[in-house]
Write a structure and sequence with these properties.
Elements (H helix, E strand, L loop, with lengths): L4 E6 L11 H14 L1 E5 L17 H18 L5 E3 L2 H15 L2 H12 L11 E3 H9 L1 H6 L9 E4 L21 H8 L3 E2 L19 H17 L4 E4 L2 H9 L1 H8 L7 E3 H8 L17 H7 L2
Parallel strand pairs: 1-2, 1-3, 3-4, 5-6, 5-7, 7-8
Length: 300
């Protein structure tokens, strides 16, 4: 067996047990078992402030929250890249890293704050999304070699969303038409919908409570397009996208007369099922809308 790949893991608030995307955490744990990946949680990590950080307080407190996570990783997990599974956590941490790299004054101020907690931030860590680990460190060929139950006949609309797409994006991918989810689905034996034109449409996550009509109009288009292309399921790398596109379907149906019942899953769940894990290991029991066709493959 190949040597275990080790990473400093930043799970983020929504992936905790009982939180909105705890099924992402469970499915990623299963995926990492199968791919021989060791995730070492950053001790005493804190919120990245992706949501609350914009409500007040300014740039320095928001950036310093991410600096603290990086400093803790530098202290406890030397030599390990920081990996996030949440798109918002990855984006917030990447943004902080870039801002500090280009503003020595901001970095000095952050370190003044962190010194009160006995921490020092050097900003030397590589910040990565889990999909980057899959693409760059594992590779499609190796992922494909482990498939035990190909996702035959499963039509998947790969919904990237906006946070893993802009401004940083996944290296080597187009901003307008990133293909990594499509490639992953094909690698797992499924049928990717390469012409799915809503793959980088924002789900309106930031507007879900303040302007729900606008958010739900965006979600309506994302789901309608998936149906138009014959999708059985939407797959995403983003917890906020997953939650928004799944949980508001009843509300959208009531308002528009649509009959949406489209499952929305994570890429990690697709991998788990294709690798032969059961529905529970793959966190399919955590869906609001059951992914029945994926469950059928898991239960074969």
């Amino acid at each position: 067996m190949a040597e275990k790949k080790k990473y400093s893991y930043y799970p983020g608030c929504s992936s905790q047990t009982g939180a909105s995307s705890s099924n992402l955490m469970r499915s990623v744990d299963t995926m990492c078992e199968e791919l021989n990946i060791e995730l070492n949680p950053i001790p005493d990590w804190n919120c990245c402030s992706a949501s609350i950080g914009y409500g007040g307080g300014g740039v320095l407190p928001r950036m310093t929250l991410s600096a603290r996570n990086i400093a803790l990783s530098e202290k406890h997990h030397e030599g390990q890249d920081i990996v996030a599974t949440c798109a918002a956590c990855w984006l917030a941490t990447k943004e902080a890293q870039e801002r500090f790299a280009n503003d020595s004054g901001l970095m000095a101020d952050a370190n003044t704050a962190l010194a009160e907690a006995g921490l020092k931030f050097e900003n030397k860590k590589r910040i990565r999304h889990m999909v980057e680990v899959l693409i760059e460190d594992i590779g499609y060929d190796e992922i494909g070699a482990g498939v035990k139950k190909p996702l035959e006949g499963l039509k998947v609309a790969g919904y990237v969303g906006c946070q893993t797409n802009r401004p940083f994006g996944i290296d080597g991918e187009s901003f307008e038409n990133p293909m990594y989810l499509d490639k992953l689905v094909d690698t797992l034996g499924g049928d990717s919908i390469k012409t799915y034109e809503k793959k980088v449409q924002c789900c309106g996550g930031a507007l879900a409570f303040s302007e729900p009509e606008k958010s739900q109009e965006m979600i309506h288009g994302i789901i309608e397009s998936a149906y138009d292309h014959g999708a059985d399921v939407i797959a995403t790398p983003c917890p906020l996208c997953q939650a928004n596109v799944e949980i508001y379907q009843d509300e959208i149906n009531a308002k528009t007369g649509s009959k949406f019942n489209m499952p929305v899953v994570y890429y990690s769940q697709l991998i788990d099922v294709a690798y032969g894990r059961n529905a529970k290991d793959s966190s399919l029991d955590g869906q609001v809308i059951a992914a029945k066709k994926l469950e059928d493959i898991a239960n074969k």
